[in-house]
Design a protein that fits this description.
Largest sheet: 7 strands, parallel
Radius of gyration: 19 Å
Oligomer: single chain
CATH topology of one domain: TIM Barrel
Helix content: 40-55%
CATH architecture of one domain: Alpha-Beta Barrel
CATH class of one domain: Alpha Beta
Structural class: alpha/beta
C-alpha cells in the first residue's frame, strides 16, 4: 500500500516525536457540513449512505477537503453489528435508532450468530477499501466499533435510552444472560475490527458511549472486561507498522487507570476531566486523545483559541496527545469555527514539540 504522507496521528498515539499535535474530530464527517447533507439526500437515508461504498467514501473525505485534519475516520455507524445479527435496525425521524427485535431473554441471545465481516458486513469493508484507496496516503484511516456494553444497551433497550432500566434489569437480575450477550458481541467486534485492518484501517477506536452510566464495580464487570478482551484479540501490526488502539468511555474519568491497563495505546477523554490530571495519572503509560467540550465550537474564535491553548498547556511538552473534542461535533456548529479550532491546534502546539 502507499506510504503515508502525514503520519503525525499514528506517531502521537505511539508517543513518538511529532512536529505538532495532531487533530481530528469525532463525527467530523456529518451533519454540520452542507456537503454532507447533500450527499445524504442523494443516498436517500442514513443506512443507504453507510452501505454505498462510493458515497461513504465521499462523506469521509469531505471534511479533509475543508480542513487540514490529521486523520480520516470511516463513515459508518456503531449499530452495524447488531443490525447484521438480525435485530432489524431502523431510524425514526428525530428519535434515533430503533430495533424491531430487541434482545429480551436468553433464548434471544442463543439465536443470534456472529456476523461475517466479509458477508453481512461486507459493505463496511468495501467502504474501508474504497476510502483507503482514495485517501492516496494523505492521512491515516481510523476504523471503529461500539463497545460491547454500548452495543448491548441498544440491543436490549431497543433503541436509545435515558434510564437504561431494561439492560440494568438484565445485568442485575439475569447477569449470566447479559454476559453471554456481551461475550458474543465482543467476539463479533474482534472479527469486525480485524477485518477493517485487513481492508486498510490503520488505527482502531472503540466507542464506549454508555459505560459512564454504570457504577465503578459494574463498569469493570460489564464494560471494561469486554473491551480488554477485544484489545487482546486485535491485529496490532499490519503493513509493517503498528495499528494503535484507542478506548473511549464517555464519563469514564474515574476509571482511567483501569482503562489504560487493558493494553490499549491511547485513552480517549471527554471534557469532564482536566487533561493535566489525566496525564499525571496515566500519561506515562498511554497516549491521550481529547478533550475540548464540543459546545466550545459555538464560542467566538478568540475563546476557541484560548481553550485550545489551555488544553495544550495542560498536556504540556512532548508527544502522546491527539487533540480532539470530548465527544462528537454538534450538528449546528458553524464549519468555520471548526476550522479555527483545527488551525489553532496546529499553530499553538509547535512550541510543545521542540
Amino acid at each position: 500500500m502507499n506510504q503515508l504522507k502525514n503520519d503525525r496521528y499514528l506517531r502521537a498515539l505511539l508517543k513518538q516525536p511529532v512536529d505538532k499535535t495532531p487533530v481530528w474530530m469525532m463525527r467530523q464527517a456529518g451533519r454540520y457540513l452542507p456537503e454532507y447533507k447533500a450527499t445524504r439526500a442523494q443516498a436517500g437515508d442514513f443506512m443507504s449512505l453507510c452501505k454505498n461504498a462510493e458515497l461513504a467514501c465521499e462523506v469521509t473525505l469531505q471534511p479533509l477537503r475543508r480542513f487540514p485534519l490529521d486523520a480520516a475516520i470511516l463513515f459508518s455507524d456503531i449499530l452495524t453489528i447488531p443490525d447484521a445479527m438480525g435485530l432489524g435496525l431502523y431510524f425514526e425521524t428525530g428519535e434515533g435508532p430503533k430495533f424491531e427485535r430487541p434482545i429480551t431473554c436468553k433464548a434471544d441471545v442463543d439465536k443470534i450468530g456472529l456476523p461475517d465481516p466479509e458477508g453481512e458486513l461486507q459493505y463496511v469493508m468495501n467502504a474501508v477499501r474504497t476510502i483507503r484507496r482514495e485517501l492516496k496516503g494523505e492521512v491515516p484511516l481510523i476504523g471503529f466499533s461500539g463497545s460491547p456494553w454500548t452495543l448491548a444497551t441498544y440491543m436490549v433497550e431497543g433503541g436509545s435510552s435515558k434510564a437504561f432500566t431494561k439492560i440494568k434489569k438484565m445485568a442485575f437480575a439475569e447477569p449470566k444472560t447479559l454476559h453471554m450477550l456481551l461475550d458474543k458481541v465482543a467476539d463479533s467486534v474482534i472479527s469486525y475490527l480485524n477485518a477493517q485492518v485487513a481492508a486498510g484501517a490503520q488505527s482502531l477506536m472503540i466507542f464506549d458511549t454508555w459505560g459512564g452510566v454504570l457504577s465503578p464495580r459494574d463498569y469493570r464487570e460489564f464494560s471494561l472486561q469486554y473491551m480488554a478482551k477485544i484489545v487482546d484479540g486485535l491485529t496490532r501490526e499490519n503493513e509493517g507498522r503498528k495499528v494503535p488502539v484507542t478506548l473511549f468511555t464517555k464519563n469514564g474519568g474515574m476509571w482511567l487507570e483501569d482503562i489504560a491497563a487493558t493494553g490499549c495505546d491511547a485513552v480517549g477523554l471527554d471534557w469532564t476531566i482536566d487533561i493535566a490530571d489525566a496525564k499525571a495519572r496515566i500519561g506515562d503509560k498511554v497516549a491521550l486523545q481529547g478533550n475540548m467540550d464540543p459546545s466550545m465550537l459555538y464560542a467566538s474564535p478568540e475563546r476557541i483559541c484560548d481553550e485550545v491553548a489551555h488544553i495544550l498547556s495542560g498536556f504540556g511538552e512532548g508527544s502522546g496527545h491527539v487533540f480532539n473534542l470530548g465527544h462528537g461535533i454538534h450538528l449546528d456548529v458553524d464549519p468555520e469555527h471548526a476550522g479555527v479550532f483545527i488551525n489553532a491546534v496546529h499553530e499553538l502546539s509547535v512550541p510543545y514539540h521542540k
